[in-house]
Structure formats: structure tokens, C-alpha cells
Protein: Threonyl/alanyl tRNA synthetase
Organism: Jimgerdemannia flammicorona
Amino acid sequence: SSYTHCSTPPVLFPEGGGQPHDTGYIGSVVVHNVQRRGLEHIHYTKEPVEPGKEVEVVLDWERRWDHMQQHSGQHLLSAILGKEEFGGFQTVSWNLGDTRSHVELATTPTHTPTAAQLAAVESEINRLIREALPVRTVAVSATDASERPDSLPADYVGTHSVVRTVHIADVDANPCCGTHVTNLAHLQAVKLLHTDRIRGNNTRLFFLVGGRVLGALGSAYAVSRDLTAVLSGGQETFVETAGRLVKESKGQAKVIKTLLKEIAGYVAVELAARVEASGHAEHHREDGDMDYLLVLAGLLKEKGVLVGARVVMLSAGEKARGGPMMVLGVDEERVNEVVKGITGELDGVKGGGKGRWQGRVKTWKGLEKAWEVVGKVGSQ
């Protein structure tokens, strides 16, 4: 069940202006969402609240403070990006994400922020933060049509409606309904991340503000410490070491694939002899994979042993983790009979195909019983 409530005066911020809603409590009841409806703030809860009752509304301050930092940081970022000396990039939208935010910039193939420009923007933003410039909000009545910006929702009307403009000293002034810091020093720091091209020519620029910068730095440092121990070297060697390990891994994989192919040749000879003698054969290799099984299947086909009612079951993978499987034969009815039988013995069998059924299983528990099914069908 879901309940909606209005509180007067409103304490929790409803979603709007690109800023997510607040959360908190009405008394002991959790408020998980807040939305605006006209001039009312609608609070959503999973439990009822007694109408007309005087209650204490408690705000999740950590969430609000994070949103204030990101939102004020976005205003400052967009203001600096829009200045001609920093490229004159206009912000067309923005998003306050759970872990990082972004502004969408109007760009073209010949007018896109360079690394040098973004470094200059970041430097200027953090310089202004160090200057601790004041941030203030000016509110005027929205009943006068001349005072209503185009961005104001059409349903935001009434005698108490106002237009709020957020001023960052003499740097920026923008209409905004969101919550903001009162001084740029509260932002602590702004870190620009990366850019993505979207919607043809536009560019998304991702960023962090305040507590998120410290959080990202802490996480990155913890990962760096772990990798230092694993790779036996500091972060300045990570890229070189990882590149070398990837190259070595690819080389080793190539060698292993070659060796498995050679092994498959010997195994195919043995399987062919067993099929000729009994009409069926089974083979499992724990360190094999689907490529190994495909090589085996190809070799058995070349040897011409898959004729008549003969069936072969090939499988690979660690016993506890499952892996790929193939059932070979030219008699489709026999192949389907084997698949039906082993499906009852193995866990999580999935696959398909005609003449050469292939798929996967979750574990190889019951493999011996599956082999008994193959032997029973193949011996008929």
C-alpha cells in the first residue's frame, strides 16, 4: 500500500529543477518520495499518518546536503563553461545522479571542449570556491506573467507562487527551485571527470562536487592500495603491468588452445574406437571449454564414426561450476532421447540443435548417471 500526505509548512523538497526529492520522516513514518502538485508538496509513505495531527518532520540531511553541493556546483560549472574565455559552451540540461552528475553541452564537431579547456574550467571553479563567494536566493511573486520564466511549470500557479533566482555573487544568476548552499566554500571542491558524445553533436560532461570528490578519492585510493599488493608496484606502474599481463595471458591462452587441439586429436582416436565397438561414447574434460568440444566434434565427424544410431556425449568444465555440453549423432530421435534422459540427471540443462545438440549445465553432479543414459540409448 502507498499513502500520500501534505504537510504545512513543507520541509521536504519535492523532485524538481533537475534535483531529486528529499527523504525523511513524518513522525516515525518513513517518507520515501516527495513530488510537487501545483503548490502542494505530496509526501509518499508506506504507512498512514493521522490527518490533522501535529508531527515532527525530519529531513535526511546527508542526502539534502549532497544534493545542495551537486546542484550549486552545477550552476557554477555551467556559468564558467558559458563564458567566452572558457569556450562559450551552453548547458542545455543536466542530471544529478546517484554517484556522479553531468551537464549536457551544446557542441558541434568543431566546437567541443578540449582537455586544456576543461582543465582551465576546473581550475577557475576551484579558485572561486577558495574565494568563498556568497550564494543567495531572491524570490519574487510568480503571479505576474512578466516575471515567469519559460522553465516554470504551467501548473505552478497561485497567490503564493514565487520565482526564485539563485545568485552566485556577480558570476551567475539563474531561476531555480532547487536547494543550494549559501557560500561557494561549502562546495569544498569540484572534479571534472570525462565526456561522452550524445544526440548527434551534444556532449555530456561528468563531474563530482564536495563530499563525492572525497568519496571517489577514498575509493580510488583503496583500490590503488589493493592493486599495489596484487601487482607488486605503485599506481604509476599499473597500466604498464596490466598491459604486460594481458599480453602474456593472450599468449598463454594461444598455447593452451594449441595443446588442447593436439590432445583432442588423441582423444578423438580413442572415442572413435569406443563408438565403433559399443555404439556410444562419453568424454568429460574439466579444463576444457566449448572450443575444445567443437574440435572434438569436428574430428569425430571427419572420422565418419557418427552413423546410424550411434551417439556421443561430450562435456567440459569443473564439476561444481558446470559448463558446456554436446550430444552428437545423425539419428535425431536418438539424440533427443539422450537429451531427455540426461536432463533428468543433470542440474539446469539448457540448449538445443538438430543432429548436434549443444548447451550448458549448472553443475556436473550426476554426470555418471547421465553417462549411463547415453550408454543405455546407444546400446539399443
